[in-house]
Design goal:
Number of helices of chain A: 12
Distance between the termini of chain A: 10 Å
Helix content of chain B: 55-70%
Oligomer: heterodimer
Largest interface: A-B, 56 and 47 residues
CATH architecture of chain B: Orthogonal Bundle
Strand content of chain B: under 5%
Order of helices and strands of chain A: HHHHHHHHHHHH
Mean pLDDT of chain A: 81
CATH superfamily of the domain at 92-268 in chain A: MetI-like
Helix content of chain A: over 70%
CATH topology of chain B: MetI-like fold
Number of domains of chain B: 1
Structural class of chain A: mainly alpha
Largest sheet of chain A: none
């Protein structure tokens, strides 16, 4: 148990190191990062000054060491556009993204679990076929386009909800719905499949033979086991949600990290993009590690080599 | 199943086309399949000939025609069936030309991801041991990582380029293929004909090519059709974020982004290319589901 745990932690740290190297090298991929930082009007003197200031005259492994130490103390560089430290920009924008992400994932789970269970227990019937068709439809939907259609219908035409920004509870409805429905498709399909598997298993047959009610069999015995793959899927879902979140925030002008990365790409604000990529990678690796550890705890089968 | 003509053929030696034919002869889902194939055929046609068939120059601005609505709305005309954008460019023509860049980038990403993933999956599944553990773990980490961020990083350093989309999509996709293929190969390795080929000292590459590869081809095909839709969505999302196919080359995702600022006065600029994205992806997913059911019932669980 301890051995498996430390192997997983080691792998996560290794993955983080690879990402760190990648992000570090990406600024040097096109030659000098000074070109990115200074822009076309800079003079020779500007170059020389900034080169010394940033320590770019040092050998590359020293540079990487400094970069890593700086990160560890919370220094992610400054935005080229606003001159604000990236770390404090992230700190002030993150809450909006966390609210949006949590609300959408909660809605997705509330929709997907009952839908998946009903579809599986009514296999082949209308509920099942409708659910399957709907989840294929949702998996085919481009989230950014769906968001724009929602704006055109519910904000521009009907004027029920604001088209963008974050002004009160009504603002979260449209972006939240876009993100939630996107996550629901895959999750429903997953729960349906693992429910079907659970319903055909020995322990469900045993539960039935002891005279447990169908409802108890379904929601207690089968669902509990069917949720295991869903927990496993959370890590993958999180990686997807981070990506889609950027798109949804850009569409709805939601003042979170996703919009921040979108604006930074448009203005070529390199340190901001770098910082956000690093943050997202760290979160993704962290969530996956957490899922692994939780699985080790609740499913003894994963403990075997 | 149809009896094989050559009795010496080993089971599952070739892609099992008999099952496909059998499924085609049955009526189940035939209408859907016909519609799906027609849609994909049309998209492919657009991808190949779209630029030549376009009724207008997709790049030529015409300020007097700007923001013309589609033909069924008042103010619209048959000259611009799907309307024009903010520069007066014909949306239908841009969609037709955009099909090519969208398809080329998506296909390149899919092929490279599938190729790398299949090779690594075969190696891991066949040889086992340390190399298998390494490949499997790398695949696990890749699948849980938002690799799209790499494309964003490229976009600000190297600039938005189609190659970046191909590289970053392939960097995720290989893992999805490697995982499934590895599982298949592990079970194939224990089949009698593979064992006998091994004990009769056939070279490893020969066994992989002659006995393993033909048996996983149908799985690769099913996976590819299921993943193609996802690849198109990712490509479109990146173009939408300004990190994909660079302007002014029309790409479906970038066209949706283009119309965002005009959503109050001209809903069609964003809506039209989006309809093409969703319909294409839906058709690909339905085709993938159909192929999976027809070719490989074991995949249904995953």
């Amino acid at each position: 148990m301890i051995r498996h745990f430390s192997i997983r932690v080691g792998q996560a740290l290794l993955a983080l190191l690879v990402v760190l190297l990648l992000v570090f090298l990406s600024s040097r991929a096109t030659g000098s990062p000074l070109d990115l930082l200074l822009g076309p009007q800079a003079t020779q003197a500007d170059y020389a000054r900034l080169e010394r200031e940033l320590g770019l005259d040092q050998p590359i492994h020293v540079q990487f060491g400094r970069y890593a130490v700086g990160l560890a103390s919370g220094d992610m560089g400054k935005s080229l556009r606003t001159r604000e430290p990236v770390a404090s920009m992230i700190a002030s924008t993150a809450p909006a993204s966390i609210v949006l992400g949590t609300a959408s994932l909660a809605v997705a789970a509330l929709l997907a679990v009952p839908l998946g269970v009903f579809a599986a227990s009514h296999r082949g019937q209308l509920v099942d076929r409708a659910t399957t068709a709907l989840s294929v439809f949702w998996m085919s939907m481009a989230p950014f386009w769906f968001g724009i259609v929602l704006i055109a219908v519910f904000a521009v035409r009907l004027r029920w909800f604001p088209a963008g920004g974050n002004a009160g509870i009504r603002s979260i409805v449209l972006p939240g719905l876009t993100l939630a429905l996107f996550a629901t498709g895959g999750l429903t399909r997953l729960i349906r499949t693992s429910m079907l598997e659970a319903l055909g298993s020995e322990y469900v047959r045993l539960a039935r033979s002891t005279g447990a009610s169908e409802r108890r069999v379904l929601w207690r015995h089968a669902l509990r086991n069917a949720l295991l793959p869903a927990v496993n899927y959370l890590g993958i879902l999180f990686a997807l949600v981070i990506t889609v979140n950027a798109v949804v925030e850009a569409v709805f002008d939601w003042p979170g990290l996703g919009r921040m990365v979108y604006n930074a790409i448009l203005s070529r604000d390199f340190p901001v993009v770098q910082g956000l990529v690093l943050l997202a990678a760290t979160i993704a690796i962290g969530v996956n590690l957490l899922v692994d550890v939780v699985m080790l705890g609740i499913d003894p089968r994963t403990r075997r080599g | 199943m149809v009896e094989r003509a050559t009795p010496t053929a080993m089971p599952g030696e070739t892609v099992d086309l008999s099952r496909l034919q059998e499924r085609l002869r049955s009526n189940r889902g035939r209408t859907t399949l016909a519609v799906v194939v027609a849609i994909l055929g049309l998209v492919l046609l657009l991808g190949v000939f779209g630029g030549a068939l376009a009724p207008h120059d997709p790049f030529a601005p015409s300020l007097s025609d700007r923001l013309t609505p589609p033909f069924w709305q008042s103010g619209g005309s048959a000259e611009f069936p799907l309307g024009t954008d903010s520069l007066g460019r014909d949306i239908l023509s841009r969609i037709m030309l955009g099909a090519r860049s969208t398809l080329v980038v998506a296909t390149a990403a899919l092929l490279s991801g599938a190729l790398i993933g299949t090779i690594l999956g075969m190696i891991g599944g066949f040889f086992g041991g340390t190399i298998d553990a390494f490949i499997s773990r790398a695949a696990d980490i890749t699948i849980g990582f938002p690799m799209i961020l790499v494309a964003l990083l490229f976009a600000v350093t190297v600039g938005p380029r189609p190659e970046n989309v191909v590289i970053s999509v392939a960097a995720i996709l290989w893992a999805r293929f490697a995982r499934v293929i590895r599982g298949e190969v592990v079970s194939l390795r224990q089949r009698g004909y593979v064992e006998s080929a091994r004990v009769s000292h056939m070279p490893t590459w020969w066994i992989l090519l002659r006995h393993i590869l033909p048996n996983i081809l149908s799985t690769v095909l099913v996976l590819a059709s299921l993943q193609m839709g996802w690849v198109i969505i990712v490509e479109a999302s990146l173009s939408f974020l300004g990190a994909g196919i660079p302007l002014p080359e029309p790409a479906w995702g970038a066209m949706v982004a283009d119309g965002r600022d005009y959503i109050t006065e001209a809903w069609w600029i964003s809506t039209m290319p989006g309809v093409f994205i969703v319909v294409t992806v839906l058709a690909l997913n339905l085709l993938g589901d159909w192929l999976r059911d027809a070719l490989d019932p074991t995949l249904r669980v995953s």
